[in-house]
Amino acid sequence: MSVTSTLQKTVFAAGAEVLEHAGPALTSVPPLRRAAVRTGEAYIRHWQQKARTDPGNLAGIVDDQEAMGLALLHTVERAFQRPLSSAVRQAVAHNLVRSILIEQGDRNAADRFYAQHGAYPPGFLTISPGKACNLHCTGCYADAGPGAGRLDWAVFDRIVSEARGLWGARFFVISGGEPLAYRSQGKGILEAAQKHADCYFLMYTNGTLIDDQVAWRLAELGNLTPAISVEGWRERTDARRGPGVFDRVLSAMASLRAAGVPFGISLTATRDNAEEILSDEFIDFFFEEQGALYGWIFHYMPIGRSFTLDLMPTPAQRLWMWRRSWEVVRQRRLLLADFWNHGTVSKGCIAAGRAQGGGYLYIDWNGAVSPCVFVPYSPVNINEAYARGKTLDDVWSDPFFAGIRRWQVAYGRDKGNWVLPCINRDHHAALRRLLAQHEPDPTDRNAREALLDPAYAQGLEGYGAACAALIDPVWQEYYKRSVSAANRGHTEALAQEESVAAPNRQARV
Ligand code: SF4
Description:
Blueprint: H1 3-22, H2 25-28, H3 30-52, H4 59-79, H5 86-102, H6 107-117, E1 124-127, H7 153-167, E2 171-174, H8 189-195, E3 200-205, H9 212-221, E4 224-230, H10 234-241, H11 245-259, E5 264-269, H12 274-277, H13 280-289, E6 294-299, H14 315-332, E7 335-339, H15 343-346, E8 360-363, E9 368-370, E10 377-378, E11 380-381, H16 382-387, H17 392-396, H18 399-414, H19 428-438, E12 441-442, H20 445-451, H21 454-479, H22 483-487, H23 490-501
Parallel strand pairs: 1-2, 1-8, 2-3, 3-4, 4-5, 5-6, 6-7
Antiparallel strand pairs: 8-9, 9-11, 10-12
The structure holds iron/sulfur cluster.
């Protein structure tokens, strides 16, 4: 076990202890809460110093992981400033912190898989069980809308059960479509969370179907947290998602706060809103006033409905987002993850159920299994695989997925710039080579169109080259700096990047 993973586990273990044993007293006794946080911080500092002495660790990565560890700790503290339902406290402590973050699922199952395949199994699955959505947002990655396809409940349930049994997975991300609109055989997402009570679910939702009743049901379940989509302030959110959606989102957040359910926000960063969603005012509003505990930022990916390269943040904006998002994490201790700029925390791409562990696969409403939500090409359909007597292990073994896993290993060995981790966005030519070799099916007509469009490929390759020109120097000078430079502290090193990182909204791919 590396020193850095020990560091993470120590932080998570401290969090679990806080949740399990101090319980409601942490909410009602602020000095006790602060003392618990100080203890956790001391642990993190201690392990950070040890990590710095290991020549196998890059200084910048230790910095990033320390910063995320501290942000996690302070997120626990923020969670306890409001009453949480007892089911939520139990599920977060047992399922999320202890079972998933510390033990990383069922190790017996993972070891069995390793003995058989020589690689670690996926750590989780993202499943979009239904394409149906009550909104019709511009640029929806899933091209979702009313009356669309869905997985049969029996298949959805079998996928979750099999991932638990064969891989030891305990974490499931639910997307869509709108997850709360999914129904099959009279069951939906809430029934799935109830049935798999030892797992933890995160669902990406537009929030408009969360009322008081749903919020109290989530409080009873405890093992499902909603990440609610917002695009920016009211005007921008309503422009993309429909009139009145921003206010319905705030109403959902009020219901969740009242019921004691932890929730976060999900943000799609575009060329037009990147500065807005990372502004202090915006972050204050959602994290401090509305009580969001975490935020996921996804840079717009040119897939799905009306896809266009013109909405992607420019390379200069991306570099600015890297600096700004880490500033928020470091200075404000907020759990705000910027995909793909925080690839240092996951140590790179996690698609195709990567061999080193912690990876995932994506399964959509038609049963199409893809390496990732953002790589819409599928070599295998789960419905057909099950009909032929296959399992998730057979699906994982598909040669297209194996090709991506080999690329991940080679990239880490040869270059390893985890700030540019993505085989689709940052290294598109590599993805094209694998698509040509294995010919997986596009999962929709948008993906087929993109595949056949040479300008699309050239545009993404140009984007990757422009990002590399800006970000490779950051990797060399900041992340790979010497231990003595690291000991001067990351603040100074970050300041040295300022001149490189100044945003230039005029720059275009
Ligand atoms: S393919 Fe790209 S989006 Fe998908 S997991 Fe890898 S880095 Fe993330």
